[in-house]
Amino acid sequence: MTEVGLIEELSMEKSRAEERLVEEVARLEKQIFSDAWSPSALADSLQKSWNHLVIVRINGSSDPAISASEETAAPAAEEPVSSDADEPGRLAGYALFSIVAGEAELLRIAVDPECRRKGIGRRLFSRMLEKLRAEKAEKLFLEVRSKNEAAIGLYRSFGMTGAGCRKNYYSNPAEDALIMTREIR
Fold first, then answer.
1. Known catalytic residue: 155?
2. CB-based burial of residue 39 (10 Å sphere; 0-12 exposed, 13-18 middle, 19+ buried)?
């Protein structure tokens, strides 16, 4: 049985993400998104003090059990917490979000296809909400492909509601974006 060994919250203001982490996120981006961000775009985004990255790593095989306790990296400029000092585990998912003037936006969220349906997306979203509350964010916004029923279901389970539509927002394939929002309490 594999354990989810790590959940980290990283802010580039607090600590520089290792080049390896940026490369891992970029690989997952390329695997999942038709409009994947490049490693340099990710690194540039993470240098902004208002952007934050939450990741989940798994230790062992690609079948993570969700019964393990969650560990969060300390906010100081320290090495990320890991259950195995030599090998931090495989990146299973991440959420990239911004917080500016009391408003937050989920920029990217992704879970490795081999790790889906294991609660990792839910853990990422929950950890993001914890950070938003701690930072006194008042409102969260996101855009999601209008046909991405799994993501829309996840967001609705966290109290997100539809706030509008952006016609032909996405390309490859062309698709509308559903704008979703919720108050942070």
1. yes
2. middle
